[in-house]
Design brief:
Layout (H helix, E strand, L loop, with lengths): L3 H28 L3 E5 L15 E6 L3 E6 L4 E5 L15 E6 L3 E6 L4 E5 L15 E6 L3 E6 L4 E5 L15 E6 L3 E6 L4 E5 L15 E6 L3 E6 L4 E5 L15 E6 L3 E6 L4 E5 L17 E4 L3 E5 L1
Antiparallel strand pairs: 1-21, 2-3, 3-4, 5-6, 6-7, 8-9, 9-10, 11-12, 12-13, 14-15, 15-16, 17-18, 18-19, 20-21
């Protein structure tokens, strides 16, 4: 007859085995969750909250990650020294989010803009006459807004003129921010950029043609052309402007500090450039995604 100790030991082994299986199942479920992030994680910017739920949009600052949930509420995590991850209690329902280096921006359902976090150069001070906006974007230390009439406004750090809107800019359909420069996609599909141009990031290629999307990195600019091909120019010390020859047709682009990310027509993700933190290593089980964004040294994808 077997001893009580034997049965107790069997029960302990069963509980241990069950716990291990459960951990694997939970880990797999989280790994294939709606939001994934990889790369530099010293501040927990790649640790997706277990209670995040369904999200409709993602954004990133240098070392923090932002998510817009299906109910219009905002969550943020990662580096929080300037309270950029502390969501204002009265923020309300939002329709869009964006990140600067160390500040966070939100477009509310009524078209008004809110920003919080590092504010030493006024990047979180919303102009009183801004009016209704349809899009927001963050540069390193400045904030950009596209107003309902298609005009662009920018505020914050302006040492390089990144907040000085060109008088002949005209009506725009999209805006983006780089480290210390601003990019705009005009209604005719042409691209304009202004601000710091030390790496040629504001020099629009003469043969660029009609574009449908723009994005900025730390010192490089990316454009998605009407035919689904990608172009990039500016700082290329890490190969972030070298478009892979087998890239194919893409539907979305994003810029990290020194890396470039694209979403291909089949929903797969590609990234290249600086990979010192693994930000360009696409997880093997990532699967099909619907949105991509880049932080300084991390990459985020939405399912």
């Amino acid at each position: 007859m077997r001893s009580v100790h034997f049965y107790r030991r069997c029960l302990q082994l069963f509980v241990l085995l069950f716990a291990m299986v459960l951990a694997v199942v939970i880990s797999s479920a989280l790994a294939d969750g709606p939001v994934r992030a990889w790369g530099f994680n010293d501040f927990g910017q790649c640790n997706i909250p277990s209670d995040l739920g369904v999200c409709t949009q993602i954004a990133a600052g240098s070392h923090h990650t932002i998510a817009l949930r299906a109910d219009g509420t905002v969550r943020a995590w990662g580096y929080n020294a300037e309270s950029q991850c502390n969501i204002p209690s009265d923020l309300g329902v939002c329709t869009q989010i964006a990140g600067g280096d160390i500040h966070t921006i939100a477009l509310r359902a009524d078209g008004t803009v809110r920003a919080w976090g590092f504010n030493k150069v006024g990047q979180c001070n919303i102009p009183s006459d801004l009016g209704v906006c349809t899009q927001i974007a963050g540069g390193g230390l400045h904030t950009i807004a596209l107003r309902a009439d298609g005009t662009v406004r920018a505020w914050g750090f302006n040492k390089f003129g990144q907040c000085d809107i060109p008088p002949d800019l005209g009506v725009c359909t999209q805006i983006a921010g780089g480290g210390a420069y601003t990019i705009a996609l005009r209604a005719d599909g042409t691209v304009r950029a202004w601000g710091s141009n030390t790496e040629g990031q504001c020099n629009i290629p003469s043969d660029l043609g009609v574009c449908t999307q723009i994005a900025g990195g730390g010192g490089h600019t990316i454009a998605l052309r009407a035919d689904g091909t990608v172009r990039a120019w500016g700082r290329n010390s890490e190969g972030q402007c070298n478009i892979p020859s087998d890239l194919g047709v893409c539907t979305q682009i994003a810029g990290g500090g020194y890396h470039t990310i694209v979403l291909r027509a089949d929903g797969t993700v590609r990234a290249w450039g600086n990979n010192s933190q693994g930000q360009c290593y696409i997880p093997s089980n990532l699967g099909v995604r619907t949105q991509i964004v880049g932080g300084s040294s991390h990459t985020i994808a939405l399912k």
